[in-house]
Amino acid sequence: MFNIERWQEIFEAIRKNKLRTFLTGLSVASGIFILVILLAIGQGMSNGVEKEFERDATNRISVWTNVTSVEYKGLNPGRIIEMDNRDYEMAVTKNSDKLDLKSGVYSRWGQLTTYKKESGSYRVEGVRADYQFLENATLVAGRFINQSDLNTYEKVAIIGNQVYLDLFKDKNALGEYVDIASIKFKVVGIYSDPGGEREETRIFIPLTTAQRVYNAGDKLRSLAFTLEKQDKYEDALAASEAFSAQLTADLKAKHTIAPTDERAVNVNNTLENTKKFYDLNNMIRWFFWGVGICTIIAGVVGVSNIMLIIVKERTKEIGIRKAIGAQPWSIIGMILHESIFVTAIAGFVGLIFSLFLLQLVGPLIETDYIRNPSVDFSVAITTVIILVVAGALAGFFPAYRAANIKPIEALRDE
Fold it and tell me: For the whole prediction, is pTM greater than 0.90?
């Protein structure tokens, strides 16, 4: 029931102790503000990680080779290991029932590409048809590489959106010819990539054409695969790890590499990386929650101390109330009411200020691993609940003490 006299008492107490109430509220507002900002940073990190993994298929397995670091079967360390088409065929044949997408890759960096008077230096990658989906590339215009291009060594190119903007300046590019390392390629497609400008400064050409144009024979720089989808993440991760381990063992056996050599064959499993990043994100989020809650507790302790002082100051008043028949629960309600009011108002100020700051600044933050820090509705509701609980906790012990004051002792208090 609404009690106007109680509200008048609360506002009168606040009016008489403006500075004390302000400093107490500031500690609570700061705690909520810090908690919301920390949780927003945690969400921003999650957004950043998700954006990073959008660049490639979420279950992509990439394999590339390096030099050996361990002596094995009389062969010295330092041997350069190069994969070829036979490695790709071996992996595909042996795992035909497991694979979804697959491609060998032959890439060259810094290839001078010109169109009329415009030119630029871009990475050129010889790939197979599945590579569009391995890279999460979306066609803006035209088509991607197909099997016919591979079979007939076609000189066709699919250019990234940034390459298109650099060379064609928003003009029509399909059907036009670009010179890549002094060889003419027909532009048949333009793609965009969720990875952004860095990923769109590449040119895809048929793998067989790349091997022929660059006199690479049947050499490959890397292999890329995805496995068939699984219903459960744990099953997908287990299958991905088993495939990665088996493929590594097969390549080491084929190229006479020591099983203990960790440098010669490298595997990047995005599922494993995703799990590591999200586990780390969860740990950081729990840490942020802990820091924020501890900050709020510090504010609550301040409120509780202030309420104890108020109880001490009003001891005689409380004694008179009890002497004329006030019940203990009404005394407790009076103290809790003031405590929750001060805590809630201060907390809401901190919450609103933090949300306003995130709304203003959050969309402008776009780094590699923090992107658009924000909080959702459920977090806002959680902080409101924390405010109410914090206020109740802050006032409980002072209220309990006030309820146990004996009228005769209170009336003697000076």
Answer: no
